[in-house]
Specification:
The complex is a heterodimer of chains A (144) and B (358). Chain A is 40% helix and 18% strand. Chain A has helices spanning 2-5, 10-13, 15-22, 43-50, 73-83, 87-98, 112-121, and strands at 28-32, 40-41, 64-68, 107-110, 125-130, 139-140, 142-143. A five-stranded mixed β-sheet of chain A has the order 4-3-5-1-6, sandwiched between helices. Chain A has a two-stranded parallel sheet with strand order 2-7. The longest helix of chain A has 12 residues, at 87-98. The two termini of chain B are 27 Å apart. The chains are: A alpha/beta (144), B mainly beta (358). Chains A and B meet through helix 4 and helix 6 of A and strand 1, strand 2, strand 4 and strand 5 of B.
């Protein structure tokens, strides 16, 4: 996942190239409420939480995931980068659970700004937004 | 299921959902799926539920709507209505309508109308978006007597590192009018007892299942049965066993199952299997399937078939899939296979489908 969490330092060296790709290359990062004690999260935990297999962080803190709406650049990058599934595969995965009464996917609340606002207002929430959209109202988790 | 019991099963969750609306901060989810499909074959002899050389959109088209809501912490209600094309009319039924109670992270108890997971995709067999084919290999999936029960089940889950385990016992009963092999029958299943065992990682799911039941059945419509054929069942034991796996790893998609069915009297014991191989290329998923149903017995109801299917799935967007399939089906040893009557020669079947979830 290094390519997702790395800084955009190379932009300084190849400004033109990066400018042309930055618009399509989202760099999603997981976020929690500032009161959450966690500072990091493993890719495995992130995957289990977003596939409905777990509701807790490594330290046992209960979290409720929120999703972005289908089609945002952050959502596409998040699922292909961290969950290792295309958005279509994610839909098929949840279809198998929803229509057998086994589970419901994380609530989709909107884009980067909407998810940031949601997480800032819900101490037990976990979400993801583009790196550039993060501010002091939420806490970015380092992905291990 | 008769009409009276449908109304009861549908009305009960509706009342509970109405109650849920009044409680504080309920979350009601409405989900649905739709399949519009058309098929044509090069034979006059009807295949499966009526595919002939007259192109038709009635054989696989269906619509499902599901409502689920939380009544109280841990207590949820789910109801799913399915409308499917049945000859010239649409048939509406509720395979799912249950209350579920979640006890901690690892146990959920459910009671009501439940579709049981006899085989790998049995409990979501109508949700075309969820699998690669237009219809799951019918050598395995056709001819199941009934697929839902009024009863209870338990979902026990356990995580061991990267492996998730599911143990799902179920118990119940069902009575319904069915048309196995084109025969109009009423079937009554008592003491339906089964278990579904699933182990899954991110890429691989392996499952095994066993179900047994006492079946009572009789003909309710006209039938031209060969002499000596007795299809009346009176509390006779039926047994179903299946193992299967699905893999979705590095663009490689594999589905495979083996099933063993035994029903008393003139219904022959049968074994069936299939292997599907597919490869994801972006939004495209081309796949090939070989499937077989066989029986050792020489009863007049014996059905043997082998088929090869080439298919293509295209994900139009994140909730719509387009599918096309060409199948070549061979009814073997002079039996009818999955046709209405022995077709005499190999039959080609062409099918198209649009699958949507919402």
């Amino acid at each position: 996942m290094g390519h997702l969490t790395s800084k955009r330092a190379p932009c300084l060296l190849a400004a033109l190239l990066c400018l042309s790709t930055a618009s399509s290359m989202a760099d999603p990062v997981p976020i929690v409420h500032p009161s959450n004690a966690a500072a990091t999260i493993s890719v495995d935990d992130l995957r289990r939480i977003y596939l409905g297999k777990s509701g807790t962080l490594a330290d046992g803190t209960a979290v409720v995931p929120v999703d972005q709406t289908t089609g945002t650049a952050s959502r596409q990058a998040f699922y292909t980068g961290f969950i290792d599934k295309s958005e279509s595969q994610v839909t098929a995965y949840w279809s198998r659970l929803i229509f057998t009464g086994k589970g419901q996917p994380p609530q989709a609340v909107g884009d980067d700004a909407a998810v940031r606002k949601w997480v800032a207002g819900h101490p037990d929430a976990i979400g993801y937004i583009d790196d550039s959209a993060a501010d002091a109202t939420v806490k970015v988790l380092q992905v291990r | 299921m008769n009409k009276k019991s449908t109304v009861v099963w549908v009305a009960t969750p509706a009342l509970i959902l109405a109650t849920a609306v009044a409680s504080a901060e309920p979350r009601i989810a409405i989900n649905g799926f739709l399949t519009a499909a058309g098929s044509v074959s090069d034979s006059e002899v009807a295949y499966l539920n009526g595919i002939t050389d007259q192109a038709s959109f009635e054989n696989d088209s269906r619509l499902g709507i599901q409502l689920s809501g939380t009544v109280a912490p841990g207590l949820d209600v789910t109801a799913q209505l399915l409308a499917s094309a049945d000859d010239d009319t649409y048939d509406i039924r509720a395979d799912w309508a249950f209350l579920s109670y979640t006890l901690g992270d690892d146990l959920k108890l459910r009671g009501g109308r439940i579709k049981f997971p006899l085989f790998l995709v049995s409990d979501y067999v109508e949700v075309g978006y969820a699998y690669p084919w237009i219809r799951p290999p019918q050598e395995v999936y056709d001819g199941l007597p009934l697929n839902s029960i009024s009863g209870i089940d338990a979902l026990l889950t356990h995580n061991m590192g990267s492996v998730d385990l599911l143990v799902q016992p179920y118990f119940g009963s069902n009575s319904e009018d069915t048309e196995p092999s084109g025969l109009q029958m009423s079937s009554d299943m008592r003491d339906v007892m089964g278990i579904n065992l699933v182990a899954s990682t991110d890429a691989l799911t392996v499952r095994a299942g066993y179900m047994e039941s006492k079946i009572t059945s009789r003909l309710t419509g006209p039938a031209m049965l060969p002499p000596g054929v007795d299809i009346t069942l009176n509390d006779d034991q039926a047994r179903f066993f299946g193992v299967g796996a699905m893999l979705d790893w590095n663009n490689i998609v594999v589905y495979s199952e083996y099933t063993d069915t035994s029903i008393a009297k003139s219904f022959p014991d049968s074994t069936a299997w299939y292997v599907t191989l597919g490869y994801r290329a972006g939004r495209f998923l081309p796949h090939v399937t070989v499937a077989d149903r066989d029986t050792d017995e020489r009863t007049p109801l014996a059905r043997k078939q082998r088929s090869t299917t080439l298919g293509l799935r295209y994900d139009l967007n994140t909730s719509t899939a387009l599918k096309a399939e060409w199948q070549r089906a061979e009814a073997r040893d002079g039996t009818a296979g999955l046709f209405e009557a022995p077709p005499g020669e190999d039959v080609n079947i062409l099918s198209f489908a649009v699958d949507v979830v919402f």
